[in-house]
Design a protein that fits this description.
With 89 residues, the protein is mainly α. It is built from 4 helices and 2 strands. A hairpin with a 3-residue loop joins strand 1 and strand 2. Helix 1 crosses helix 3 and helix 2 packs across helix 3.
Length: 89
């Protein structure tokens, strides 16, 4: 469900991060494609690509041209550490 007061790319990014953090998406699992994000979050191709770029820049996924983007080993731990650090503030 897209929340009207939040940017669509941020909602999609956070949803995928949560799936990684909770183990719903495991290392090696393919994250939703750009097309799947476009459909689910009613976003443009450019915005969906921004989600993938943000996931790569965060060190959570790697993209293999022509096959998709996959969760990296240690991604869940990275997100857990970040969440714990945010809780310390």
């Amino acid at each position: 469900m897209v929340h009207p007061s939040r940017s669509k790319w941020r909602q999609a990014f956070r949803a995928i991060c949560e799936q990684i953090r909770t183990g719903e998406l495991q290392p090696g699992d393919r994250v939703p494609t750009v097309h799947e994000l476009m459909t689910e979050y009613e976003m443009s191709n450019t915005v969906a690509q921004k989600v993938h770029r943000a996931l790569r820049e965060a060190g959570l996924v790697e993209t293999e041209r022509g096959t998709g983007s996959y969760v990296l080993e240690g991604a869940a731990e990275k997100l857990q550490t970040e969440q714990e650090s945010d809780g310390d503030r």
